[in-house]
Specification:
This protein has about 160 residues and is of the alpha+beta class. The protein is about 20% helix and about 35% strand. It has five helices and 13 strands. Strand 10 and strand 11 form a beta hairpin. The longest helix is centred in the middle third of the chain and has 11 residues. The N and C termini lie far apart (about 40 Å).
């Protein structure tokens, strides 16, 4: 990847354009790495989120709405285990935007052509090889529309789907 392409795909946090976040499977989304603490994530994104905690204290969630990110941290260590991206975020994987241009159907076919372990759940296209899921309200009803969200997850997060 040349310098101009890297510059084009770098995370841009301020400004009115879409914010590009490069996905590195099971590793990171832009500057946010799976396994980071909330403090490290906030420092990497250079902004403060609104934060919520589940009533049983099993999870903390940072909401960076203006960036199009929700970051989840699991107890007991509260380390980042998944990152949810939605517009205005522009998740990029292998030089393709996952929310901007292609339909859920086309993206699912593309991912399945590279990852035989991909599972379709009715609302998700889950790639175990690449560590992310494309999410739509209903694949049947919305297959010709773009995905609404992309969930990047740590290894093992979706293992329950493999056992079905």
């Amino acid at each position: 990847m040349g310098n101009t392409e890297k510059e084009r795909l770098r995370v841009s946090i301020w400004g009115s354009r879409l914010m590009n976040f490069l996905i590195k499977p099971y590793e990171s989304v832009g500057p946010v790495k799976l396994g980071m603490t909330p403090k490290q994530v906030r420092r990497a994104l250079k902004c403060s989120p609104s934060t919520s905690m589940l009533s049983d204290s099993s999870e903390i969630r940072d909401h960076f709405g203006k960036l199009g990110l929700h970051i989840c941290y699991q107890a007991p260590n509260y380390l980042c285990d998944r990152i949810l991206l939605f517009l205005p975020a522009n998740p990029i994987f292998q030089n393709r935007s996952l929310l901007k241009r292609l339909s859920m159907e086309k993206l699912s076919q593309w991912i399945q052509s590279m990852d035989e372990s991909t599972i379709m759940t009715g609302i998700e296209c889950v790639s175990f090889q690449f560590g992310f899921a494309l999410i739509t309200p209903s694949f049947k009803l919305f297959k010709h529309k773009r995905p609404k969200e992309v969930l990047v997850f740590k290894e093992g997060f979706y293992n329950s789907l493999l056992n079905k």
